[in-house]
Amino acid sequence: MPLIYLFLLSLFLIIFIQLGIFGIVLEKVGLSPNSAALLLGSTLFGSMINLPLFKITSDENENINNQKGPRLLFTSMQPFTGTTIIAINVGGALIPVFFSLYLIFFHQLNPLQFIPAIMIVSYISYIFSRPIQGLGVGMPVFIAPVTAALVALIIAPAQSAPLAYVCGTLGVLIGADLFRLKDIKQMAVPVAAIGGAGTFDGIFFTGIIAVLLA
Length: 214
What we know:
This protein is of the alpha+beta class. Helices cover about 55% and strands about 15% of the residues. The longest helix has 18 residues, at about 110-130.
């Protein structure tokens, strides 16, 4: 993940903390201050780590030797040579997935509620996400959190906050990343990270904003 993204996310975190926004989020999802600090720190640190999964052969591109992508683990920037490595971002995918599972079990969310909610947000995320050549997948930041909050409030008003986080973050991962894997060949990128740059900020802010709105 480029350092500029990490800097901007850190700046937003400082602003949110100063405004007391995280206090509201913590109260709604039932996290202690120590647990929240661990979650935020792990997410930001993990956003710099992409774990490779498999490779695919990408379509030829006239700028094939000029494209560079994100790091894998702590290696140097990867050049594009016609092959794309499919990876998974720790902070943008693994941690949100595990935290969503925690919320599902801790709040005892009903599968008949969170599964349809995830499906709806996934569909909306897919519709509004776009593959960007040389970068990855991008989508408007507020589409997923607003959708997640509305869906959660309609489906489970009593548990809208945890449900909003779950369907928002997992919905973006599924709709804007997993459903877009078929478009990777046309992107001409050396590394395509699930939950990485392009959707990390969407996933990160989806969780926060969706909980606030729910």
